Amino acid sequence: MKPLPKSLWASTATPPVTYPPLAAHVAADCVIVGGGFTGLSTALHLAERGVRVVLIEANEPGWGASGRNGGQVIPGLKLGPSEMRAKYGDERGRRLTTTVGATADLVFDLINRHNIDCDAVRNGWIQGAPGPKGMAEVQSRVEEWSAEGADVAALDADEVRARVGGGDYVGAYLHRGGGTVNPLSYARGLARAAAAAGAQIHGDSRALSLERVGQSWKVSTSGGSVTAPKAVLCTNGYTDNLWPGLAETVIPVLSSVVATEPLSDNLRKMILPGREGVSETRRVLNWFSIDGKGRLVFGGRANQEETEDPNAFSPVMARLKSLMPILGEPRIQFRWAGHVAITTDHVPHLNELAPNLYAGLGYNGRGVAMSTMMGKLLADRVGGARAEDIPFPTTSIERIPFHGWRATGIALAIGWKRLQDRLNP
Ligand SMILES: Cc1cc2nc3c(=O)[nH]c(=O)nc-3n(C[C@H](O)[C@H](O)[C@H](O)COP(=O)(O)OP(=O)(O)OC[C@H]3O[C@@H](n4cnc5c(N)ncnc54)[C@H](O)[C@@H]3O)c2cc1C
Question: CB within 6 Å of ligand 1 — which residues?
Answer without folding.
Answer: 33-39, 56-59, 63-66, 68-72, 74, 206-207, 234-238, 240, 242, 255, 257, 287, 299, 338-340, 361, 363, 365-369, 371
